[in-house]
Amino acid sequence: SPAQGKRGKKCGSGGGGGGGGSSSGGGSPQSYEELQTQRVMANVRERQRTQSLNEAFAALRKIIPTLPSDKLSKIQTLKLAARYIDFLYQVLQSDELDSKMASCSYVAHERLSYAFSVWR
């Protein structure tokens, strides 16, 4: 029945089906070992995804000016990044940096970092 087909795909394999059965291979669509392998692979993918996400947050934390005492959670980092983008947009709109300061990227970065820490 169609309901059995849906139940068979619940574990994420997408394979199997309810066809007439073969003389070799056993009765269940997936063996315990196959399910275990799928679980292990899903865990590996999740670990890689989490590691990639953590690396992205670490890179973002290096870009956003923070105080030495700041130990930001992921949600705090995202909120602060959004505020920093808004701050930079306001700086661009108001033309606060003259062209001489903009040419010296280190000084400009330090001024922006200080201005942002005061602004936030």
From TrEMBL:
Pfam families: HLH. Acts as a transcriptional regulator. Inhibits myogenesis by sequestrating E proteins, inhibiting trans-activation by MEF2, and inhibiting DNA-binding by MYOD1 through physical interaction. This interaction probably involves the basic domains of both proteins. Also represses expression of pro-inflammatory cytokines such as TNFA and IL1B. Regulates cranial suture patterning and fusion. Activates transcription as a heterodimer with E proteins. Regulates gene expression differentially, depending on dimer composition. It comes from the Eukaryota. GO terms for biological process: cell differentiation; muscle organ development; rhythmic process. Residues 11-28 have a biased composition (Gly residues). This is Twist-related protein 1. The gene is Twist1. The keyword rRNA processing does not apply. Keywords: Activator, Biological rhythms, Developmental protein, Differentiation, DNA-binding, Myogenesis, Nucleus, Repressor, Transcription, Transcription regulation. Residues 1-34 are annotated as: Disordered. Residues 1-10 have a biased composition (Basic residues). GO terms for molecular function: DNA-binding transcription factor activity, RNA polymerase II-specific; protein dimerization activity; RNA polymerase II transcription regulatory region sequence-specific DNA binding. Residues 37-88 form the BHLH domain.
